[in-house]
Design brief:
The protein is of the alpha/beta class. The protein folds into two domains: about 180 residues, P-loop containing nucleotide triphosphate hydrolases (Rossmann fold, 3-Layer(aba) Sandwich); about 140 residues, Nucleoside Triphosphate Pyrophosphohydrolase. It contains 13 helices and 13 strands. A six-stranded mixed β-sheet has the order 8-6-10-9-12-13, with helices on both faces. A five-stranded parallel β-sheet has the order 2-3-1-4-5, sandwiched between helices. Strands 7-11 form a two-stranded antiparallel ribbon. A hairpin with an 8-residue loop joins β9 and β10. The longest helix has 18 residues. The protein starts with a strand and ends with a strand.
């Protein structure tokens, strides 16, 4: 299990986390900031210069998950993780990656009143160097606006502890009580475990009366996606697509969808690649669309889009796959692709 202690810079995450490991049995402190520090030694300066924050590096988000899984395999018990996460997409990606490894996450937000928070920031003297301390205080103040903007989703997602009048020890006791009494519930994201080899996945294109097609926004990975998922052992791919459509958006297809294309996706670590099939699920009428429902923990949103609009939502290979699927639908044929491009 992971207890993720969130909050803006200056909220007292680190001091609370240090107190917390004495209150939760068999717990270990894991600070993902160490992973960020490692980025400065691992990545070329040119790559580092492309981002303002190491959280914007996909490798950081991936290594945060991998390191947590490796630590738990080594020491067991509970990891206490003090780390600011203000972008919901990054929270979804990291917590989704942990869910894929069957690691429960209890998300806690330390939220002092802003006036108290500003006072604490102004009093920070971490380095004993006036210039360095001033830069730290400036950094913390600069992140108050993004923190305020994130409060809506943070408050809905995390168990909130008002630490305005609490010491670090008192805040840790509140967090420990919330975890031990079940008030800080496990993160609701559920994700299929990471594959150990190539997979077969079935996606289904569903259209409205304007010939736009449906895309969904998964909470556990970046980018939009077609309704669908991994084909289970012994399951026909078309039936897998039908099952996933029913599970993801609550629509029971009346007929087995028609195959549009088969695409071989090359392995790109940490992904294993495999076969990706796209099916034509037909047109949804107004009554079908009114019945669309999303499982809150897995999908954030759905929308019908045009081919042009999809270019801004889908990753490049997935978008190429979509374009050829639409051409196959127009021609009434089935296409064979490799990495998004036709062969033969």
């Amino acid at each position: 299990m992971i207890v993720w202690v969130n909050g803006t810079f200056g909220a007292g995450k680190s001091s609370t986390a240090r107190e917390l490991i004495d209150l939760i049995p068999h717990s270990t402190l894991y600070d993902p900031e160490l992973v960020g520090t490692a980025m400065g030694r691992l990545l070329p300066a040119k790559r580092l210069a492309e981002v303002e924050d190491y959280q914007d590096l996909p490798i950081w988000r991936r290594l945060v998950v991998d390191t947590a899984a490796a630590l738990l395999a080594e020491v067991g018990g509970v990891l206490v993780v003090p780390m600011t996460l203000l972008r919901q997409a990054y929270r979804d990606e990291i917590f989704g990656g942990l869910a894929a490894r069957r690691i429960d996450v209890r998300h806690v937000l330390l939220a002092p009143e802003e006036t108290i928070l500003r006072q604490r920031i102004d009093g920070r003297t971490e380095y004993g160097d006036p210039e360095a301390d001033a830069r730290v205080r400036e950094w913390c103040h600069a992140h108050l606006a993004p923190y305020r903007a994130a409060l809506d989703w943070l408050a809905a997602d995390a168990y909130t502890v008002d630490t305005s009048a609490l010491t670090a020890a008192e805040a840790a006791r509140s967090v420990a009580d919330a975890v031990q009494k079940g008030l800080a519930a496990p993160c609701g994201i559920v994700q299929t475990p990471d594959p150990t080899g190539e997979t077969v996945a079935a996606g289904v294109l569903l259209f409205d009366d304007q010939d736009r097609f449906l895309l969904v926004d998964p909470t556990y990975k970046p980018g939009w996606e077609f309704p669908g998922g991994v084909v289970e052992s012994g399951e026909p791919p078309a039936r897998a697509g039908m099952r996933e459509v029913a599970e993801e958006i609550g629509i029971a297809l009346d007929a087995v969808p028609r195959l549009l294309l088969v695409d071989w996706e090359r392995p790109q670590p940490p992904g294993h690649g495999g076969l990706r099939l796209l099916f034509d699920g037909g047109r949804l009428d107004a009554a079908d669309i009114a019945r669309l429902r999303l499982p809150g923990a897995e999908l954030r949103a759905w929308r019908f889009v045009t081919e042009e609009e999809a270019a801004d939502l889908l990753p490049p290979v997935r978008y190429r796959r979509l374009r050829w699927a639409l051409r196959a639908r127009e021609r009434g044929t089935v296409l064979n692709l490799e990495a998004g491009d036709p062969v033969g």
